[in-house]
Amino acid sequence: MSHSNTPKTLHVATPGSLGPVTPEEASLLEKLDLGRLPRHVAVIMDGNGRWAQKRHLPRIAGHRSGTQSARTTIETCARLKIETLTLYAFSVENWRRPKTEIDFLMALLREYLRKEMPLIQKNNIRMRFLGRMDELPAGVQNDVRDAMEKTAGNKGMVLCVALNYGGRAEIVDAMNAILSERNGHGTSEDKVTEEQLSQHLYTEGLPDPDLLIRTSGEMRVSNFLLWQIAYAEIFVTETLWPDFNRARLLESLLEFQKRERRYGGIREGEPSDEKPARAAGH
Fold it and tell me: Which residues does the annotation mark as catalytic?
């Protein structure tokens, strides 16, 4: 898979694309090069529980408040003409949580899809869902299929919702799909290539993330897009997800543009034995 040092934004937004902005947002927008935004932004939406706990509220209050941050992030990325946005909504490990919380999260997802569909259509967003959909409750599966069908013809940003998702599970599913296709017809010399595996991932046909954002300050990737984030720049903010507003998103995009992306190479004229300046990206 080839990489480009400068991400290409297929359609460039204008400074007025976001509509009315706060003074802080205006200041950040002035510094942003709207022609060099990441093609694919992935977000680990973390901190809902801690946000609620700080306010002496139940955890579900944090989840509900987090939907506003999701709405802001989705609409902002769409208006900035970012090609793909992936939000980590529910992991395969999240089934270990209390049943009452799981039931609430599933109901909240269904409510969100119904309420936000007009906004999604207005912004010409196409929806995809990443994960083991067949293990979800029947009602959720129906709503997921309905959302994908309703937005299939849209030509704007692709919004991927990682639902019952695990990075290791995705790689296992891809390998099993390849083995199933071969059905015993391959030989020991038929090695699986990176390209073949990429074609069988949930994200097939999408660019790999250029930027991975994690809220709440945790320094881990939590089994999220393990294959795809190989060369993603990682931005970790202490901001809890319900407090992640448009200014914080613009701040992460600005930080991304300050990074020098090498994809394992070195700068021209740089000694080859120089140690990388950052551990999180190249």
Answer: 46, 94
Residue tagged 């099993």 (tokens)? 176
Question: Which of 36-50, 130-144, 169-183, 246-260 is least confident?
Answer: 169-183
How far is Cα 171 from Cα 176, in angstroms, rounded to an integer?
Answer: 9
CATH topology of domain 36-258: Undecaprenyl pyrophosphate synthetase (3.40.1180)
Which residue, 124, 123, 130, 158, is CA-closest to 144?
130
Burial profile 27-56: b = 16 or more Cβ within 10 angstroms, e = fewer: ebbeebeeeebbbbbbbbbbbbbbbbeeee
- In this predicted structure, the answer to whether residue 276 has a pLDDT above a threshold of 50 is no
Q: Which residues pair with 88 in a beta bridge?
A: 44, 162
Per-residue pLDDT of 40-90, as tens digits, reads: 999 999 999 999 999 999 999 999 999 999 999 999 999 999 999 999 999
Residue-range domain boundaries for the chain:
36-258
Percent of the chain at pLDDT above 70? 86
Q: What DSSP string describes 69-133?
A: HHHHHHHHHHHTT-SEEEEEEEEGGGGGS-HHHHHHHHHHHHHHHHHHHHHHHHTTPEEEEES-G
Q: What is the pTM of this model?
A: 0.88
The C-alpha atoms of residue 88 and residue 225 are separated, in whole angstroms, by 9
Handedness of CA 165, 167, 173, 177 (dihedral sign): positive
Please tell me the distance from the alpha carbon of residue 229 to that of residue 197, in angstroms, as a whole number.
15
Rounded distance, CA 138 to CA 30, Å?
47
What is residue 257's three-state secondary structure? helix
- CA–CA distance from 134 to each of 89, 141, 142, 184 (Å)? 16, 7, 10, 26
